[in-house]
Amino acid sequence: xxxxxxxxxxxxxxxxxxxxxxxxxxxxxxxxxxxxxxxxxxxxxxxxxxxxxxxxxxxxxxxxxxxxxxxxxxxxxxxxxxxxxxxxxxxxxxxxxxxxxxxxxxxxxxxxxxxxxxxxxxxxxxxxxxxxxxxxxxxxxxxxxxxxxxxxxxxxxxxxxxxxxxxxxxxxxxxxxxxxxxxxxxxxxxxxxxxxxxxxxxxxxxxxxxxxxxxxxxxxxxxxxxxxxxxxxxxxxxxxxxxxxxxxxxxxxxxxxxxxxxxxxxxxxxxxxxxxxxxxxxxxxxxxxxxxxxxxxxxxxxxxxxxxxxxxxxxxxxxxxxxxxxxxxxxxxxxxxxxxxxxxxxxxxxxxxxxxxxxxxxxxxxxxxxxxxxxxxxxxxxxxxxxxxxxxxxxxxxxxxxxxxxxxxxxxxxxxxxxxxxxxxxxxxxxxxxxxxxxxxxxxxxxxxxxxxxxxxxxxxxxxxxxxxxxxxxxxxxxxxxxxxxxxxxxxxxxxxxxxxxxxxxxxxxxxxxxxxxxxxxxxxxxxxxxxxxxxxxxxxxxxxxxxxxxxxxxxxxxxxxxxxxxxxxxxxxxxxxxxxxxxxxxxxxxxxxxxxxxxxxxxxxxxxxxxxxxxxxxxxxxxxxxxxxxxxxxxxxxxxxxxxxxxxxxxxxxxxxxxxxxxxxxxxxxxxxxxxxxxxxxxxxxxxxxxxxxxxxxxxxxxxxxxxxxxxxxxxxxxxxxxxxxxxxxxxxxxx
Amino acid sequence: xxxxxxxxxxxxxxxxxxxxxxxxxxxxxxxxxxxxxxxxxxxxxxxxxxxxxxxxxxxxxxxxxxxxxxxxxxxxxxxxxxxxxxxxxxxxxxxxxxxxxxxxxxxxxxxxxxxxxxxxxxxxxxxxxxxxxxxxxxxxxxxxxxxxxxxxxxxxxxxxxxxxxxxxxxxxxxxxxxxxxxxxxxxxxxxxxxxxxxxxxxxxxxxxxxxxxxxxxxxxxxxxxxxxxxxxxxxxxx
Lengths: 737, 238
Prior knowledge:
The structure holds 2 protein chains of 2 kinds. By secondary structure, chain A is an alpha/beta fold. Chain A has 29 helices and 28 strands. In chain A, the strands form 7 sheets. Chain A has a 7-stranded mixed beta sheet with strand order 5-4-17-16-15-6-7. In chain A, strands 22-27-24-26-25-28 form a 6-stranded mixed β-barrel. In chain A, helix 6 links the parallel strand 6 and strand 7 (174-176). Chain B is mainly alpha-helical. Chain B folds into 2 domains: 3-66, no CATH class; 69-102 and 138-235, no CATH class. Chain B has helices at residues 3-15, 22-34, 38-64, 76-82, 105-112, 120-130, 152-158, 163-167, 189-192, 209-218; strands spanning 65-68, 179-182. A two-stranded antiparallel sheet of chain B has the order 1-2. Chains A and B meet through helix 1 and helix 2 of A and helix 1 and helix 3 of B.
């Protein structure tokens, strides 16, 4: 019997017929259908009991309360905490996307050190030992002051632990990242004599005059400001926005007053001029509780009559006078300032001018006004025992010159640090700690920051992510992410009451990370002597619990502690100046350089345009990189693919021969970048507006390489009055790419 | 020589190109059928048929499913005697209305913090999981694909259905049966049912979409999704 073609075919046909009579084809079809609908690699939410953890967000200084929802041991949602005094259930997009930061693939999973340019994992014991040896050597050489620390804040237990470590070790070089609060706190200090936080009772005001502040775009505490602005509107309050660009805040305001950028201070002085001239000010306050107004008028305000201000600002004299009258006649007017989200300290004179407006209408420490909120005082640790090296080190001048003869008023001038390092033959900083900050991205002129960091022999990053600064570091000691750790939030930016929040762990740490507070305590113990003795706590949580004392239980249960009854100190007791009054003018204020709009860097002929940054809620532009949700939510007038769009007035575009969507090179003195043109009537002719928060070189593929970092193209310009960076823009040019 | 062999011989001759001239090829082919040479063809057809039937009914199910043992054997009868609240004692509804499903270690620890009896399975459970704080990776016979939305509350609380209607008599078992995992989809054989042809005698024999639909139509339940208010597919596929 031979098998031929025909019999083979018969076998196949028989087989086919038989197969059709078996479940095989139908079952396989079904199984493949199920398989293809449930790709095994598609992540699915964990099943399990759901629970909520009351905590606080640390992603910006906003101090919002959050409720973290978990299914079993996985965080699945973050919502605003209902009833929280700051945000009452509201939350910004970054806070809501916090779970993506927890599960981010760019998290650093274990401590590591750089060996020949490559990261090598090490154990925590090794890391702390190596660091302790290095610090001991420096101390022995008498170079304790060459250790520096950059932190996101100078309040709260973690920054205070770092600062305490530096002090008892012997270095005055603790830095806080710059922001508008530098200028605000200084303005309050100079006029009211108190070192306090600044709060704004926006919800009870009836006229908010904002000098470029992105009230609904992340200025202050976004959670509070969004809610307060809604209440202001509900109460029939008015909102005017003074800004060169039609921002979302401007669009939501009653009046958008387009101003030549950088002349906001002149407008504030102009308004004060009208109010004083027409005697529209609050006589009770000015006569009874304030001093120095006439001196201030003679010295500076008198030089800003409406006609001159009109020329500087581009706003008509009529508008200026009307605005001043409306402001003075409002029952609870409130003037605020600080550009966008407030990443830039700005001009001190501008802040003083705006604060003067509030004082003129007597709306200080009053409902609907600006409040001096006492600094948190719960951190009351035992006095330090300083040994000889520590005392000697603390006698050394600060590297940035803050507090020196040249910058008597500034406390921290971080933007000067890279300049100082780059100007020295050998880096004056031998070891640098970076915690809760990403100066490699957020400081102006990032190239020079990079150069300076490369010059520092040993940079230690406490970041949870491989961000720009950590890429430049020599050792990384990764912190837990905020959903895995305890930490106190000592205040909420711009919130008018003293409030403490408590971040509590929602889950156990996912990786081999350690709390920065614990690392500092362990490092101090490894160094021993007076340094170890300054940290008597077993671990960070013990320290935190002891520090918060009787507030601890409330904080654990409620997630916050608030002095709800605080309603601003009475005028009679509020001012700690020599005169015990509000001082429009005093020796310190008179010593400050006069006001003149800042001249931006770059030649006006070579760089005919002005580059200005702007902020959007949909981009994190602080120390934290945006998680993927934010990039997804970005409108295509900001980002198309990997290319960022710059806003350009159609008139300017026409002169340059540029059309919508045209790719161009944006060039400043500091560098060049490829961008696309977006025509908008909401931007003043001659300006080019670029969003902050893009152009990361580190982080994940969702964020890295998208758009352009404004800081890379900009440089700092010192405010003659304070020394802080006041550069609100940069001269630029556009050329066809 | 049997008829078959004869037929084969003829067939072999006919198939040999050397044995026939080109001119006779067509005629020869025709005469094959006439001569009864179709029998071997039928035979191959039948062989193919039988082979495929064996493949489809016997070999395929064995290849399709891998046999897995549960990490720990569990005696439902024994536990049923010890608890007060029948199935609900361990498989309960949480306060928020969600169903707990297979118990987690925290529930088991209430009684099994230490080895209570002499059963080696209990000893394994305590030493491997309780002491080490690891959840038992139970294999779940009734797990539906991720694309299916299923609410126990809707069926048990609202529909007043008994556990046994879908899960069968697992609560009366003394040991856990072998878990047969579909190598393609990754789900249990209990979804398609043990019977490869899809026949079922009991309501719990299969848990495919048709089985859900059958009951939903018969009981005339809400034909719209409670969550989305959409009908049809959206009742179970959100």
